[in-house]
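Input structure tokens:
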């Protein structure tokens, strides 16, 4: 009897109900491929945009969603040399981008043009995966490929920062939290903006030196300058945009860096910087689009060496993947929203689920 692999596919764009759980044959590795039993996957803003049809890269028909996940290698092809059965691995956000600058030949992503991670087992080329850092849980490992690497390249991909320099990051999304953690690892000072006063203590505990409540103080760029003695932030990790880009430039030091990660929102797809803000600054504005495999391995080495633990907000079981989407869309998460998959012994004790849209309980 053929072993069954439970897989979610996007059958219809536009609504979480279009993400449907089904049953397929177990994947078989090609000569240079590995089969991974997924143990945890996590959500990113990109996944909501793909579902809504607003992401620049369109999802292929009936794609398996989600780019970020970690699991255990359970089968390898005859020419595989990077991994062995039993290894803990995670996929890269741009799986074909190994090193150097990104080019058109690298423009494939899990969960978009390639089947993603929201399945009990997935197959990928051995070159598309990296080892999970020692000491991390499956959920923590699943938090790293997109948000973790983007935070890392934001801090390390431009002009070098020196210990004691100031980083400003916006909001309390998972990427911002990882930027705080990496910045402290690098010996940097951190200022964070938030509209939720209740999060201030949590941000300080995570390593933030200052928290600016922009609901109370809408001129947060001016407040950043006050906190830095008029200098401004040496690096702004711009995770909110495009509406905040003008204030981010105003908050930056004269020769600061503004890393623009978000270029569109539900209300705008234009980045607007006033003449006054631009004329008063010599800041460099640069883009980061996650990073390559070499950078991912560099980041995972830093995570392992320093014992960094990504913040996990909430974990959902595999059968409630659509509930995880709904919760994440609500925007209240402090850290990553993760979907955990059962281990082998748990899987064997479960009865196969029917291929219906009612297979997943509704979110309450």
């Amino acid at each position: 009897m053929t072993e069954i692999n439970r897989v979610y596919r996007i059958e219809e764009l536009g609504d979480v109900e279009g993400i449907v759980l089904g049953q397929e044959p177990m994947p078989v590795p090609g000569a240079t491929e590995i089969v991974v039993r997924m143990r945890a996957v996590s959500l990113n803003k990109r996944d909501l945009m793909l579902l809504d049809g607003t992401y620049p890269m369109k999802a292929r028909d009936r794609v398996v969603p989600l780019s970020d996940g970690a699991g255990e290698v359970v089968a390898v092809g005859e020419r595989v040399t990077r991994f062995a059965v039993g290894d803990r691995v995670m996929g890269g956000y741009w799986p074909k981008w190994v090193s150097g600058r990104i080019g058109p030949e690298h423009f494939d992503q899990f969960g978009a043009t390639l089947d993603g991670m929201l399945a009990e087992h997935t197959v990928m080329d051995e070159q598309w995966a990296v080892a999970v850092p020692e000491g991390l849980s499956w959920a923590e490992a699943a938090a790293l490929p997109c948000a973790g690497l983007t935070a890392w390249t934001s801090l390390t991909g431009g002009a070098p920062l020196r210990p004691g320099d100031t980083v400003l990051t916006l909001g309390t999304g998972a990427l911002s939290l990882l930027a705080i953690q990496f910045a402290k690892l690098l010996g940097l000072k951190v200022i964070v903006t938030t509209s939720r006063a209740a999060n201030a203590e949590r941000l300080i505990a995570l390593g933030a030196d200052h928290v600016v409540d922009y609901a109370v103080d809408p001129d947060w760029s001016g407040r950043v300058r006050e906190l830095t003695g008029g200098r401004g932030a040496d690096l702004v990790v711009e995770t909110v945009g495009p509406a905040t880009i003008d204030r981010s430039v105003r908050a930056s030091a004269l020769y600061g860096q503004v890393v623009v990660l978000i270029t569109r929102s539900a209300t705008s797809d234009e980045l607007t910087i006033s003449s006054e803000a631009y004329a008063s600054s010599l800041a460099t504005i640069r883009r980061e689009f996650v990073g390559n495999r070499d950078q991912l391995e560099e980041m995972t080495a830093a995570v392992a060496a320093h014992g960094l633990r990504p913040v996990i907000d909430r974990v959902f079981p595999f059968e409630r993947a659509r509930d995880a989407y709904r919760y994440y869309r609500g925007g209240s998460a402090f850290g990553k929203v993760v979907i955990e998959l059962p281990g082998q012994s748990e899987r064997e004790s479960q009865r196969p689920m029917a291929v219906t849209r009612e297979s997943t309980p509704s979110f309450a």
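Residues 14 and 52 are 4 Å apart (CA to CA). Confidence is low (pLDDT under 50) at residues 345-364.
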